[in-house]
Amino acid sequence: MNISQYQTWIDEIVALCKPSRVHLCDGSEEEYDRIAALMVKQHTLIPLKKRPSSFWCHSDPDDVARVEECTFICSEQKIDAGPTNNWCAPREMHERLKTLFSGCMQGRTMYVVPYCMGPIGSPYSKIGIEITDSPYVVLNMKIMTRMGMPILQGRSGGFVPGVHSVGVPLKPHQQDVPWPCNPKQRMIAHFPDESSIWSFGSGYGGNALLGKKCFALRIASVLARKEGWLAEHMLILGITNPQGQKKYMVAAFPSACGKTNLAMLTPTLPGWKVECVGDDIAWLHFGADGRLYAINPEAGYFGVAPGTSMKTNPNAMQTIRKNTLFTNVARTLDGDVWWEGIGQEAPPGLISWLGGPWDPKKGPAAHPNARFTAPSSQNPIYDPEAENPQGVPISAVIFGGRRGSVIPLIYESFHWQHGVFLGASVSSEMTAAAKGKIGTLRHDPFAMLPFCGYNMGDYFAHWLEMGKRSKGLPRIYYVNWFRKGADGQYLWPGFGENVRVLKWIFERTSNLASAEQSPIGYLPAALDLSGLDVDLREILRVDLADWQREVQELTSYFQLFKDRMPSALLEELRGLKQRLSL
């Protein structure tokens, strides 16, 4: 095993954290089964009789989502972290972490988890090693990444080190709890100049699975800027028309706004087929032909369960029939899972996400941010090119958010610079995926607000710069599935019907679909609405007064970035304002 080049670092963490045992993870199925059996014995996991090799668990009630207020970018200069990130000087943060991590793994096993982000053998994949005292993290990393000692064989060069602890050392003979965590001392720190990650106090997914948001977005976005590529909070899908022509698209939506449903879409239009490369993160590089190619750095889905059903996402439901970890969903007495929106009534005797009998008067049975973790390869529409080391060629970039008004169903940017402006202008109503008041509107540029590892003004500039490097760029679109009418009801049925929008995008990128110019971009001259009762005029309506208020809001928001805000995007804002006043 090629561990020697990492041994000095591992020894340093052992000396700091003082674990009782050290386990080097080989990533095998046997290892997974052993750790799962241990967690069942410790009452952290409960096997599900109705789902082979699947388990249920619930977290501490104060450890259920990403904690952005405890997440820091520790660049040397505060300005390089930017106004949308929490910042701390690297030296100060290292001192705080040294205190937090000193002896934090006493009485626990320290797991050393080598993993690969991206297909094995891809020139675009990168290696990380996460050290953790959480067996729950190990099981999730096994599903979410290409994990284990074998991925280090024959590898040399750098890696991204990550250290994670639940922050609850155990004294001799002290009884552990099913979900150890330390909410009062949570800290998730990223060091972009060192390409390292430290996480303390939380056992929840995005805070503890360091390959996911921490590495694949916050650290990777910094690496991408340095190396000339893009690390994005985007799904990747392949779509094939009835004639057998296939194209790939990426789409960026804020968390819990329909990315997984779109990535696994079951088309309602005859002859159209969608296949899934990834549902959450895309790494995009220019190929030799000048086109953007995307790989999915992940190997699994960490999806939001509530609302997922055979109606909304049958492919996800098929994916999670086996080999799946369920966190904070409800549990049935006969050994299955349940959540709000699953498509069937709650059975009697339901166990809530908190582990006791469900009382409907005290809240939902499943936490709104309850999750499933499942291997991508189990998806019945897993794209055959998903493991292609070169990635897949991208024809369209789609942005979107959850907006009840203003934003039409779909429109196309005038050009790349205008498309970057669309990405920078994304805003969405808050969901349960992060702490905050649900329903509140917040700006989320490129759906990267919580995930960009450096100044977002510089991030916008990087996107603009990427557009100068090639003439084979994908077209850029903006969608909004969530617009409501005067009666408060959604104007668009969504889910499988979204293929009608994807069809228009597909045909636009082949110059086959017509469009009409509006002040905000190109709107469809027509959509395939066969069999649907939809008021296309209303769902595509551009209300000038609404958009003038939107311009005022964006003008105020862009001032946040001061001199780091690219002049090209301010030029696009002025252009929009002028077109709205004509």
Overall form? globular
Tally of helical segments: 15
Protein structure class? alpha/beta
Q: Can you tell me the CATH class of the largest domain?
A: Alpha Beta
Number of strands: 29
Helix content: 25-40%
Strand coverage percent: 15-25%
Biggest β-sheet description: 9 strands, mixed
Task: Write down the overall mean pLDDT.
Answer: 95
Radius of gyration: 23 Å
Q: Alpha-carbon distance between the termini?
A: 68 Å
Could you tell me the CATH topology label of the largest domain: Phosphoenolpyruvate Carboxykinase, domain 3
What's the number of structural domains? 3
CATH 2nd-level architecture of the largest domain: Alpha-Beta Complex
Unreliable parts: none
Secondary structure elements and their pairing?
Layout: H1 4-17, E1 21-24, H2 29-41, E2 46-47, E3 55-57, E4 71-73, H3 78-81, E5 86-87, H4 90-101, E6 109-117, E7 126-132, H5 135-144, E8 146-147, E9 160-165, E10 187-191, E11 196-200, H6 205-208, H7 211-227, E12 230-232, E13 235-240, E14 246-252, H8 259-263, E15 273-278, E16 282-286, E17 292-295, E18 300-304, H9 314-319, E19 325-327, E20 330-331, E21 337-338, E22 371-375, E23 392-400, E24 410-412, H10 416-424, E25 427-429, E26 441-443, H11 456-466, E27 475-479, H12 499-508, E28 515-517, E29 522-524, H13 536-539, H14 544-558, H15 567-581
Parallel strand pairs: 1-6, 3-19, 4-5, 4-10, 7-9, 9-11, 14-23, 23-27
Antiparallel strand pairs: 2-3, 6-7, 6-8, 10-11, 12-16, 13-14, 13-15, 16-17, 17-23, 18-22, 19-22, 20-21, 24-27, 25-26, 28-29
Helix pairs in contact: 2-5, 10-15, 14-15
